[in-house]
């Protein structure tokens, strides 16, 4: 069991540190709203991971693999949400600049950050596919499926939380530079385009 946990932890860690929606979301939230709000966005993301882990252990994510309709519904919903996040970032930035202000006020409340982190993760079909396709490969013969799946899920959640905390700390340390008006506007533009890019990729991938 120990060998299986280590092997899964390595694979999950590689997936965790690969730049994606969750990392971009937490980075943007920390820069615009501070470390506390970044931490809450991170909690939202890892709560989504925990939900996926529980669904996988219960066999619910098998629906994504077995049903093209279910997968497509989740994929389209996730793509639309990412496109909305990207479009909202670009629109707010454009509107504030046109009004003559130095930088857009894009800060959000902690509750909003928590909700956005949770929603973006739950609407990402790739997370469900990861749990459905990867977890069973690491479960040793004879090991209890539900308990082992939840154990792997907890490992992934802890890795995800650790990584996002590093992102928050790094972004918080650089916040003095990143919140300068010109830099902040550029960051908003980059993250908006990135979210739209992620949304398009989710929408067209099969």
Automatic annotation (TrEMBL):
This protein's GO CC annotations: plasma membrane
Subcellular location: Cell membrane
Source species, domain of life: Bacteria
InterPro entries: LeuE-type
Keyword set includes Transmembrane: yes
Chain ranges passing through the membrane: 6-27, 39-67, 161-178
Membrane topology recorded in Swiss-Prot or TrEMBL: Multi-pass membrane protein
Single annotated GO MF: amino acid transmembrane transporter activity
Keywords: Cell membrane, Membrane, Transmembrane, Transmembrane helix
PANTHER family noted in UniProt: ARGININE EXPORTER PROTEIN ARGO, ARGININE EXPORTER PROTEIN ARGO-RELATED
Name used for this protein in its record: LysE family translocator
Taxonomic classification: Bacteria, Bacillati, Actinomycetota, Actinomycetes, Streptosporangiales
């Amino acid at each position: 069991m120990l060998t299986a946990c280590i092997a899964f932890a390595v694979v999950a860690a590689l997936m965790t540190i690969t730049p994606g929606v969750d990392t971009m979301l937490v980075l943007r939230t920390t820069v615009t709203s501070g470390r506390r709000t970044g931490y809450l966005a991170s909690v939202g993301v890892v709560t989504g991971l925990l939900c996926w882990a529980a669904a996988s252990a219960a066999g619910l994510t098998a629906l994504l693999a077995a049903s093209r309709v279910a997968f497509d519904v989740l994929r389209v919903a996730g793509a639309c949400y990412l496109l909305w996040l990207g479009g909202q970032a670009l629109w707010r930035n454009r509107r504030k600049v046109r009004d003559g202000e130095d930088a857009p006020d894009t800060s959000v409340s902690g509750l909003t950050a928590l909700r956005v982190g949770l929603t973006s993760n739950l609407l990402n079909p790739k997370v469900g596919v990861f749990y459905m396709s990867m977890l069973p490969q690491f479960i040793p013969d004879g090991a209890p499926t539900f308990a082992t799946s939840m154990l792997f899920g907890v490992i992934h959640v802890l890795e995800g939380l650790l990584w996002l905390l590093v992102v928050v700390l790094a972004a918080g340390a650089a916040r003095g530079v990143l919140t300068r008006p010109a830099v902040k506007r550029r960051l908003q533009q980059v993250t908006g385009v990135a979210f739209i890019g992620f949304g398009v990729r989710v929408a067209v991938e099969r």
